[in-house]
């Protein structure tokens, strides 16, 4: 395979995209008047998984602005954080917001990360996901609630993926901590592997994906500046994570879910960094 560097990745995958990011005022106004044009085949499609966006990335923006930016990034799937659709919304409000996402041409596949500390919060989360017709809840539940969660999963058919949150997290600092809690439960209860927090825990995300592939339901895709608790989010390809090795593992284990980009940097101006990250990931995928 010919060598290809970072600059070539970005150039080949972002040239057209970046032309419009900073010049179109409607991008930030949230207007979606143009007919949605389905993008061409993306490199990830040949491997059977999809790229998406964790809406926490655009936490400083409205739902309408988030949808506009996600479309311009050509990310077809979205997982909503409650910034954009509060968990205490009425059924009518949830249904209306979900309809807005789908009208934008995006798949609303899940919500999260949702923190579940009381039984009532479990009930509310599953009712919320059901009203929005989501397939998955990405969560950090109190382990004592797992029997109730298993019951809800079986009743609703909605999966639940436990998110590892790195050093210092009380229950799920690592993917293994989550896996040990769920391995004997319904198989629709599994892991959301956050590769940034895995790296911050001193772990190799590729190895974690391989070890726990039988319960890998979702991925939060990012890069970090250091493989230590001090690591911070950076543009993908600029940090310490060996993304090529991770993608090779994802392909090898035949992962069929979503890898949702979650960009925690530049809260007020995240779009350039997300666009760079999307281009880098798709550039790598064209070489695998």
The biggest sheet, with number of strands, parallel, antiparallel or mixed sense and barrel status, is: 8 strands, parallel, barrel
Rg over alpha carbons: 18 Å
Q: Tell me the strand percentage band.
A: 15-25%
Number of strands: 10
Q: CATH homologous superfamily - what is it?
A: Divalent-metal-dependent TIM barrel enzymes
CATH topology group: TIM Barrel
Q: What is the total domain count?
A: 1
| Side-by-side strand order of the widest sheet | 1-2-3-4-5-6-7-10
Portion in helices: 25-40%
CATH architecture: Alpha-Beta Barrel
Task: Provide the structure class.
Answer: alpha/beta
**What is the C-level CATH assignment?**
Alpha Beta
Distance from N terminus to C terminus (CA atoms, Å) equals: 9 Å
Q: What are the secondary-structure elements, in order, as H or E?
A: HHEHEHEHEHEHEHHEEEHEH
Number of helices: 11
Question: Which whole number gives the mean pLDDT?
Answer: 91
| Unreliable sequence segments | 15-20, 22-30, 33-38
Report what the structure shows:
It is built from eleven helices and ten strands. The relative contact order is 0.15. The longest helix is centred in the N-terminal third of the chain and has 16 residues, at 6-21. The chain is α/β, with parallel strands linked by helices. It has helices spanning 6-21, 26-29, 63-72, 91-103, 119-132, 146-156, 175-182, 195-200, 205-211, 243-252, 271-286, and strands spanning 50-54, 77-80, 107-116, 136-141, 159-163, 189-194, 216-221, 223-224, 233-234, 258-261. The radius of gyration is 18 Å and the shape is globular. It has a single domain (42-286), classed as TIM Barrel (Alpha-Beta Barrel), CATH 3.20.20.150.
